[in-house]
């Protein structure tokens, strides 16, 4: 006995899963988490760095390119202000602003993501950019010297280059740093070339070049040539070949020739001055604007291609380095995964059987709870018998914990079915009592009506006859209330008509069964008849709607009943002049009318409106659509749409604008009640 208990304890699901999964899972997770975390962080940093480098190069390349052109046009305008030069400059301002607007979000993103020095440089660049409108205003109004404007534009470009430098230098590992340094050298060389081009273009436009400008131009041309020459030694073969090809092109050679002509021109205008005479600086420029513009513009794209190629090499090396890191991380993860797979392989084989059993139990449980049990409950609610010995079938899954779970569910479902059976029996018994009381009340009402008929036929005094009519009306309403109980109990009213009844008589009969029928005005009734099998229910349905309108409208106000043909059948509108209801109240009532609920006292609100449930039951029985909505008079409008299958044409005259007196309603009730079972007068 003890041995059996020990074996049972050692083979429980909890112990099996602990033994099978815990040890290999912990070792696998520890190894995998370490390798994956470290590798993922490194690989992610490398990939993000490479991506930022490419984004930064593209963003600042676009902005700096437009700034260089704006700097050149500003120098030309300051050298020789004219409407044409100002127009060209303003158009370039627009292009520069568009480039900055397009890349602003990228710059902010790079600054936030990089943080540290990159973020500070990005913020400094954006702050410097805020000074650009003032510089433009000074240039447009010719309030700044060319040399000062050149310096301020160059400072802005330099700030952009500083951000680019920090980003590029932060890209990749040590293997790509050399290419990054070369990219920075080429970028600086191109900017110095652009400064020299703008400086000379402005001087040519001004008609002369000062000593300071000549010195600055000399420095710029020497500097960009030295940078390119020094970078050539470390360039990759493809970029070096591109450089060698560039320096042999005619535009490049022409630019160098023109630059040398400017730098090496005679420093003074007249070298044959008498002794003691002060020499004058030679500001003449031996280069025309057309020569410089044509040659410099032809060289700039070639130098730009060289710069782009070197930047691309740097970014490509960074990308390869990042990919290499990703691959190494993936290999490490796969290795850890393989080790973990070997560790849990035995666990998978052992737990597979348990998993399949649990899945099978789940499927069978869901089938019982979602399909079989609802079907059993539905049959019980319909009054059909259920054999508890056969339904529902029990689940069997062994004697371990899974089997115990199945047994527990078997117990739960047996209890649920037994409770449903008990509830159905209680409901059926209560319903029988309910209907028995209703039928007894209806029998008494019928006897009262027959007695009243005899008294009315025998009475000749008008006042007594009026009182008998009033009593007859109250008893008729009592018969409808008894019918309410029968309908709510799921049975049919005892009243039947064999032949179709004119619609006008149906409407009058419905009005006659309401308490304040004197307030009801029948406005219209088409020449139609209601099929005999539906007359009693239609009269009952309309009487409930009309009585609801009279009860919830001010005393003495009129309630109008209109009817008319529509494409789907016939509508009957009951409109009162009460206070109406809220939108939510209309929605709640219309939901009840659209879907007849089960008659369950627990579902009623504090003030149940039994008439609405009766209307919903009758409407569902005959396919009548009933809806309540606000009335134009502030009250409520009830619309009942009778389907065409309940109607047929009738020769009876149309009734419009007729107000019914109590005597007419009494006679109407006497006429329309002639088809009651047993041949009674009602």
UniProtKB/TrEMBL annotation:
GO cellular component, one term: plasma membrane
GO molecular function: protein histidine kinase activity
EC top class named in words: transferase
One Gene Ontology biological process: phosphorelay signal transduction system
Catalytic activity: ATP + protein L-histidine = ADP + protein N-phospho-L-histidine
Enzyme Commission code(s) on record: 2.7.13.3
Residue ranges constituting the Histidine kinase/HSP90-like ATPase domain according to the UniProt record: 533-646
TM spans (from-to): 20-48
UniProt keyword Chloroplast, yes or no: no
Xref: InterPro entries: HATPase_C_sf, HATPase_dom, Nitrate/nitrite_sensing, TCS_sensor_his_kinase
Name under which the protein is recorded: histidine kinase
Organism: Marinactinospora thermotolerans DSM 45154
């Amino acid at each position: 006995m003890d041995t059996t208990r020990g074996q049972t304890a050692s083979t429980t699901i909890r112990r099996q899963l602990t033994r099978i999964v815990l040890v290999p899972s912990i070792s696998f997770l520890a190894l995998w988490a370490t390798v994956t975390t470290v590798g993922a962080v490194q690989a992610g940093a490398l990939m993000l760095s490479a991506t930022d480098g490419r984004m930064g190069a593209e963003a600042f390349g676009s902005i700096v390119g437009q700034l260089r052109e704006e700097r050149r046009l500003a120098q030309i305008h300051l050298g020789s202000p004219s409407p044409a030069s100002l127009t060209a400059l303003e158009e370039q301002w627009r292009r520069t602003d568009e480039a900055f607007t397009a890349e602003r979000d990228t710059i902010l993103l790079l600054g936030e993501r990089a943080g540290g020095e990159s973020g500070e440089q990005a913020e400094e660049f954006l702050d410097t950019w805020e000074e650009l409108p003032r510089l433009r205003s000074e240039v447009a109004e010719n309030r700044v010297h060319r040399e000062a404007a050149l310096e301020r534009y160059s400072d802005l470009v330099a700030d952009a280059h500083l951000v680019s430098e920090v980003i590029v230098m932060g890209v990749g590992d040590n293997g790509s740093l050399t290419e990054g340094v070369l990219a920075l050298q080429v970028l600086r060389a191109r900017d110095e070339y652009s400064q020299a081009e703008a400086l000379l273009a402005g001087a040519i436009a001004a008609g002369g070049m000062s000593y300071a400008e000549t010195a600055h131009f000399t420095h710029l041309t020497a500097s960009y040539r030295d940078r390119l020459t020094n970078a050539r030694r470390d360039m990759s073969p493809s970029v070096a070949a591109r450089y060698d090809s560039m320096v042999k092109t005619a535009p490049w050679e022409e630019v160098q020739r023109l630059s040398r002509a400017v730098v090496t021109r005679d420093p003074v205008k007249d070298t044959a001055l008498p002794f003691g005479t002060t020499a004058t600086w030679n500001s003449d420029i031996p280069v025309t604007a057309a020569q410089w513009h044509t040659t410099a513009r032809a060289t700039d794209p070639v130098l730009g291609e060289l710069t782009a190629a070197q930047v691309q090499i740097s970014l490509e090396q960074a990308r390869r380095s990042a990919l290499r890191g990703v691959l190494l991380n993936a290999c490490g993860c796969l290795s850890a995964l393989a080790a973990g797979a070997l560790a849990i392989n035995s666990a998978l084989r052992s737990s597979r059987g348990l998993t399949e059993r649990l899945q099978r139990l789940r499927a069978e449980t869901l089938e019982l709870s979602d399909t079989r049990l609802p079907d059993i409950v539905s049959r019980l609610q319909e009054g059909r018998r259920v054999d508890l010995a056969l339904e529902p079938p029990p689940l069997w899954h062994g004697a371990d914990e899974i089997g115990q779970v199945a047994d527990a569910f078997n117990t739960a479902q047996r209890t649920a079915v037994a409770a449903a059976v008990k509830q159905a029996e209680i409901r059926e018994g209560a319903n029988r009592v309910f209907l028995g009381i209703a039928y007894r009340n209806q029998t008494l009402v019928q006897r009262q009506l027959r007695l009243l008929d005899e008294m009315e036929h025998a009475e000749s005094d008008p006042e007594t006859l009026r009182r008998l009519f009033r009593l007859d009306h109250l008893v008729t309403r009592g018969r409808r209330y008894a019918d309410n109980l029968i309908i709510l109990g799921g049975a049919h009213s005892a009243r039947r008509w064999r032949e179709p009844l004119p619609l006008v008589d149906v409407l009058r009969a419905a009005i006659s069964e309401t308490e304040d029928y004197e307030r009801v005005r029948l406005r219209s009734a088409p020449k139609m008849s209601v099929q005999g099998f539906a007359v009693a229910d239609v009269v009952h349905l309309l009487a409930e709607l009309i009585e609801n309108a009279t009860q919830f409208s001010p005393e003495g106000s009129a309630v109008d009943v209109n009817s008319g043909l529509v494409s789907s059948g016939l509508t009957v509108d009951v409109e009162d002049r009460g206070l109406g209801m809220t939108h939510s109240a209309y929605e709640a009532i219309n939901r009840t009318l659209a879907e007849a609920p089960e008659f369950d006292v627990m579902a009623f609100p504090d003030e149940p409106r039994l008439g609405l449930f009766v209307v919903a039951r009758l409407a569902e029985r005959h396919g009548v659509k009933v809806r309540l909505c606000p009335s134009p008079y502030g009250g409520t409008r009830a619309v009942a749409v009778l389907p065409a299958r309940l109607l047929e044409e009738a020769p009876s005259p149309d009734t419009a604008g007729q107000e019914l007196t109590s005597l007419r309603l009494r006679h109407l009730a006497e006429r329309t009640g002639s088809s009651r079972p047993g041949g009674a007068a009602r």
